[in-house]
Amino acid sequence: MVLSGSDQSEAGLSVVGVGDVTADILVYIANRPPVAPYDRLNTLVPLRAGEISDIVEKTGNHWRKIFNLYAKLGYFLTLKNALAIEDRSVSEDGPGAFSGSRREGLTVSLPEITGRTGVELQSWKGLQSRKELQCWKECQSWQEYRDHFLLQAGSRQALLFSEPVSSASEITNQACRVVMGKQYAQSLGVANWFDDWNMIDEAFSISRRGRMILCPYFDYRQLSNDKLDHLVRLVTTLI
Question: Which residue in 53, 139, 161, 172 could disulfide with 144, CB within 3.0 to 4.6 Å?
């Protein structure tokens, strides 16, 4: 998705929220921060460093959990992306390929993600040139990822307060669309939008034709660590 200025739209519908105009992960939420200027937004704008902290300070624990879980989702997706690239590089070049000028020599220690033990990730020049992986230089935890990367320009993520388009013919990009919360999904009537819904379990459903995932609300009790891991796997199949 590429949206800019007054042309911000999805199939002619106004796109409203916070995040990157080139987002390929779109998370839809029924509410918005009840504080200016977010309560009056009528377009899509990127967040700046420190803005999430300011929102949380003004609105409380509810929005802290939403941003924290979105940060874990993005952080874990980036990790999986990097490890997939690493696996492809090893497969193509052989086990002894990372030596000499080929190897950057920068080891980033990743702490526990969604309750699991961290891993060591080798970062190479080829990866660091990609915007989505530049955050590894500064972000050694999902908290740092949240504060310095989440929903900012270049993050390729958006949190949208406007409704998603309701038919496959209206989808104009290859973004993965995540509708947060069963009640919101029911109020939108998404079950009638596409004919290929696959109900994974009580918490998740996916439509590949609609490039859409229905998931629990971003709350620690509803979106537990195991469910967050499941959401990461589902999103990976659509991006």
Answer: 139
Tens digits of residue pLDDT in 165-216: 876 656 666 889 999 999 999 999 999 999 999 999 999 999 999 999 999 9
Angle 55-57-61 from CA coordinates, rounded to 5° = 90
Q: Distance (Å, rounded) from C-alpha 82 to C-alpha 135?
A: 12
Count of other CB atoms within 10 angstroms of residue 33: 22
Q: How far apart are the C-alpha atoms of 152 and 158, rounded to whole Å? A: 9
Q: For the residues of 102-155, what is the DSSP string, one character each? A: G---EEEE---BTTB---EEEE-HHHHTSGGGGGGGT-SSHHHHHHHTTTBTTS
Domain that holds residue 53: 5-91+144-236
Number of domains in the chain: 1
Q: Is residue 120 part of a domain?
A: no
Helix, strand, coil content of the chain in percent (nearest 5): 40, 20, 45
In a domain, 108, yes or no: no
